[in-house]
Amino acid sequence: MRRGILAMLVLLAVGLAAAGGYWFGQRSAPPGTKAAPAIAVQEPKILYYRNPMGLPDTSPTPKKDSMGMDYLPVYAGEAPDDSGLVRVSLAKAQRLGVRTEPVKLRQLSRTVRAAGTVQPDERRLSVVTTKFDGFIEKLLVNATGQAVKNGQALMQVYAPELVAAQQEYLLARQSVRDMQNASGAARDSAMQLAKAALQLLKNWDISPDQIRRLEQDENIARTLTLAAPSDGVVMQKLAVEGMRFTAGDPLFRIADLSSVWLIATVFEQDIAAIRTGAMAKISFAAYPGESFTGKIAFIHPDVGIDTRTVKVRIEVPNLDGRLKIDMYATVELTAPASAGAVVSVPENAVLNSGARQAVLVAHGEERFEPRLVELGALADGFYEIRSGLREGEIVVTSANFLIDAESNLKAALGAFTDPAGQTK
What we know:
With about 425 residues, the protein is α+β, with helices and mostly antiparallel strands. The protein has 3 domains: about 75-105 and about 340-415, conserved putative lor/sdh protein from methanococcus maripaludis s2 fold; about 115-120 and about 255-340, Efflux pump adaptor protein, beta barrel domain (Elongation Factor Tu (Ef-tu), domain 3); about 135-250, no CATH class. It is built from 7 helices and 26 strands. Strands 8-17-20-19-18-21 form a 6-stranded antiparallel β-barrel. Strand 22 and strand 23 form a beta hairpin. The longest helix has 20 residues, at about 185-205.
């Protein structure tokens, strides 16, 4: 009975297949019609196999290099022809994302970025000191950071030598008056003594106003007032009321901060782009979104041994006093990289192997010419081309390395070098 059931199932399956026109998943052709021929897909022809590392070594059959890497096939239409052109199909160029750009004349300018700190202008620093010994009787400016004006009283000091010098000067003046009826030699001697006493007071930096009061009142002042030599801010106060000082001791250090220095550190390789007198754009973290300008005044002659940087001094106006000492700043120094407009290409267009540099020149019709070039300055993403290209030619700016991988570019570049190694 089992055999009968199995036979019926086989007959049923054969009948269904015949009715639907299918036999093992294929539809049968209607009666009286011819079957359509199958379309054959033609594979691209492989011309040869090239070295995977770009060496000028080819093989007509598949093989491996010394490191076990398979040689890469080079298909028809992609091999360099006798003229040194590299052919890449349009479809493959689109897949690679090839972009081109014309060669242009550009005025190249280079921007150097550096960091720096604000420092006082050394030419606007002054130190308050004396040329005699004494004591500080009263301190009139007694805080670091206090702003002072030119001629403002800083302190009153007592000096025994100063009192004695005033007495000598008054006595010499009195002797000149008493010698009016004396001989000429005696009068000249008295006048010489008076001049010597007056010169001693001047040598001790006694102000003309104090000497004038001494001559008018003829009263010996027990204390002398020392004044600020210039406008500025007290950067250091060493004077303390009641202390004794000696000649030459620094008592105050005053800095005029109406103009400050910005000391920027520039890397050694960027120094060639910096010129004295050029303007700099400066920004501070304390004032976001605001920029300041300064002028490069000096480039230090030495290079830091450890950091390989050079210090650059930039003068920055600070009339409102917003720039503080040791404030951190970011500097942008812009300098021309060429004397005028030069032939230039984007930096991405250059294939740099270290020993030589090349670009891919697009000739249309899926053809690219590898061409050796001589590079000049690199500025803001563009290379100066000194030789090898003309204005208006079209160069590949993206996917040029992929074209190198997809074609035997190094073999094409070899056409530019004769066996002796000299460039044609």
